[in-house]
């Protein structure tokens, strides 16, 4: 008996997490002699998250594992690619195409979209947070707001998107890094005295773990920050202010007060780490106020899923598409300098960038050939570096 309501790897690979109408479609196609019809299908979305002009594609490796072994060809933007919902001319921009006999892959549409819709949403918001923080460290604290089976995938997506660390043990393993965390309010409450709890933490936890003290359990943030500095002195790396909106008041002002009082007492090197209901807007405000690092949870891990859709655009070598979509297989050409896209028919030569005149490169690259994964599947640290490079280019283009 299964303890939890989750699908296994085998369930997913066998298409058991699909919508039932795909099974019915297969039955109809076989009964009517349409089971060998060859198609090209593409994945697009109508908008990027949160009214931004771009998002970040994530979940490609899992799509590769999902379709591995099927008689299909797949072309995709690499994992961690910036994507635009539409190109510079307003045409929908595909992030992935699948080619093969429709009967062979139709039931995998549902899990394929599930992977990239949710993971891309998380990675996109992580990227927005990274930009808002102005290169200051941001840690993913969001796994308590999602189903635990998703913790590694969501932390991996957040890390790829630009967050500097993750709190979950399995998530850190998926990223190839060590987990990051401080202490819960429960530690101080069990001790009944925050100073005793802080000193116990200092005595027990490994010396190479930074002493970042949670400083708002019983008294206000300013008072407990001073107490923590006086209790740990040179061993104190930072104080964490985990102040919920229900009693926050003016959080940037609180950060400024804490900074003033610590500096006044000679603790200029003690960092201020803030958490508690943060989002893109508040991170930018708190960064401006002097916060040094951030823990962001629900806003990233609970990001509304993107509306990627898969649509057939070619049948037996001829363009076909439902209304609102463009027929024919396509290529997305991206400017190497400003990252603007132009969508062209697949056989069209490389255009010059319409915005800056720069050279362009094809973004839909071979991922699977007749069921075999032929693309490299980089480690999360390598993908994250590509992401940060793209974010720097986007920032320059916006200036």
Strand order of the largest sheet: 13-12-1-5-3-17-18
CATH domain class of the largest domain: Alpha Beta
Q: What is the residue-mean pLDDT, rounded to a whole number? A: 95
**Backbone structural class:** alpha/beta
CATH homologous superfamily designation of the largest domain = nicotinate phosphoribosyltransferase
| Count of alpha/pi helices | 14
CATH fold type of the largest domain: nicotinate phosphoribosyltransferase
- The stretches of 5 or more residues where confidence is low (pLDDT under 50) are none
Which oligomeric state applies?
single chain
| Radius of gyration based on Cα positions | 24 Å
Q: Based on the structure given, which CATH architecture of the largest domain is correct?
A: Alpha-Beta Barrel
What share of residues is helical? 25-40%
Distance between the termini: 57 Å
List the helices and strands and how they pair.
Blueprint: H1 9-13, H2 20-31, E1 38-44, E2 55-56, H3 60-67, E3 72-76, E4 82-83, E5 96-101, H4 102-105, H5 109-133, E6 138-140, H6 151-160, E7 165-166, H7 169-175, H8 185-191, H9 194-204, E8 211-214, H10 221-232, E9 236-242, H11 251-264, E10 271-275, H12 280-289, E11 293-296, H13 298-301, E12 309-315, E13 318-319, E14 330-335, E15 341-345, E16 360-362, E17 365-369, E18 372-373, H14 380-398
Parallel strand pairs: 6-7, 6-11, 8-9, 9-10, 10-11
Antiparallel strand pairs: 1-5, 1-12, 2-4, 3-5, 3-17, 12-13, 14-15, 14-16, 17-18
Helix pairs in contact: 3-5, 5-6, 5-12, 6-7, 8-9, 9-10, 10-11, 11-12
């Amino acid at each position: 008996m299964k303890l939890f309501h989750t699908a296994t790897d085998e369930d997913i690979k066998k298409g058991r997490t699909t919508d039932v109408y795909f099974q019915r479609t297969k039955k109809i196609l076989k009964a009517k002699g349409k089971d060998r019809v060859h198609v090209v299908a593409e994945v697009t979305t109508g908008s990027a998250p949160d009214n931004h002009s771009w998002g970040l594609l994530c979940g490609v490796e899992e799509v590769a594992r999902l379709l591995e072994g099927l008689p299909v060809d797949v072309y995709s933007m690499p994992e961690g690619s910036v994507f635009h919902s539409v190109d510079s001319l307003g045409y929908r921009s595909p992030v992935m195409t699948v080619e093969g006999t429709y009967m062979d892959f139709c039931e995998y549409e549902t899990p394929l979209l599930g992977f990239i819709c949710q993971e891309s949403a998380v990675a996109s918001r992580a990227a927005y947070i990274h930009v808002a923080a102005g290169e200051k460290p941001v840690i993913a604290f969001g796994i308590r707001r999602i189903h635990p089976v998703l913790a590694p995938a969501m932390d991996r997506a957040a890390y790829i998107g630009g967050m500097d660390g993750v709190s979950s043990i399995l998530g850190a393993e998926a990223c190839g890094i060590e987990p990051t965390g401080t202490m819960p309010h429960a530690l101080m409450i069990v001790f009944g005295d925050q100073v005793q709890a802080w000193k116990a933490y200092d005595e027990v936890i490994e010396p190479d773990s930074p002493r970042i003290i949670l400083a708002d359990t019983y008294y206000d943030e300013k008072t407990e920050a001073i107490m923590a500095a006086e209790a740990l002195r040179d061993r104190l790396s930072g104080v964490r202010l985990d102040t919920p909106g229900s009693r926050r008041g003016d959080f940037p002002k609180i950060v400024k007060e804490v900074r003033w009082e610590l500096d006044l007492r000679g603790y200029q090197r003690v960092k201020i780490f803030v958490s508690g209901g943060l989002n893109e807007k508040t991170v930018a405000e708190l960064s401006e106020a002097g916060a040094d690092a951030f823990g962001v949870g629900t806003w990233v891990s609970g990001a509304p899923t993107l509306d990627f859709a898969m649509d057939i655009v070619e049948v037996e070598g001829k363009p076909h598409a439902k209304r609102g979509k463009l027929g024919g297989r396509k290529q997305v050409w991206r400017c190497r300098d400003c990252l603007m896209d132009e969508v062209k028919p697949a056989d069209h030569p490389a255009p010059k960038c319409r915005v800056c005149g720069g050279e362009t490169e094809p973004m839909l690259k071979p991922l699977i050939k007749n069921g075999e994964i032929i693309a490299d599947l980089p480690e999360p640290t390598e993908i994250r570096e590509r992401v940060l490079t793209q974010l720097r280019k986007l920032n320059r283009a916006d200036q």
